[in-house]
Amino acid sequence: MIIDERRRTADLVESLDPEQLNSPSLCAAWTVKEVIGHLIAAVATPNSSALLLLLRSGFRIHKANARLAVMMADRPADELAALLRTHAENPFRPPIVGYPGQLTDLQVHGQDIRRPLGLPQDLRPERLRVSLDFLVGGRAVGFVPKRRPAGLRFETTDLDWAWGDGPRILGTAEAVMLALTGRHVALADLSGDGVAELKDRTSDPAGKN
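Structure tokens predicted for Maleylpyruvate isomerase family mycothiol-dependent enzyme:
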């Protein structure tokens, strides 16, 4: 699944024009191209370079990741696509979040690119299920604060998947995935008596990714 998602992301990169690549993404202050840079940096950055950057960032992982993404995004788009294909089969397995975290990172950031550009979702149901299970399973460190889904029930309208007890939140699997990971734009696509509470938790600085 991860290998195929990396290759499909390479196809996406090659389909974008310069204006699209420099457009804002859903991911904080990153452009579309910087999001792509982040996805490549995870597998294409030498360990020595990553460690040096981590040192320079005061061992703040998120800050180091942001710098890596920006540095990688300086490369031409065709080179970024080539790097994704070259490293598509990289067996890197992040600690704690493991392969489900890698797959979820690719899917969420793919939507960070596609949504603001008005592109089709192009997501695979079986992969969405893996990511949804991961996001509510307690191991999604850096993806979902534990407080965010607690005491709520999530139900997807296009996939036979549900989780939790409490006020209900209904929506497509894509919208639920994005809302769980703090993408405010997805909240408008959800319904149910639990949406207001989820919105409060997503807006609360203590509950952000």
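The chain has two domains: 2-117, 125-207.
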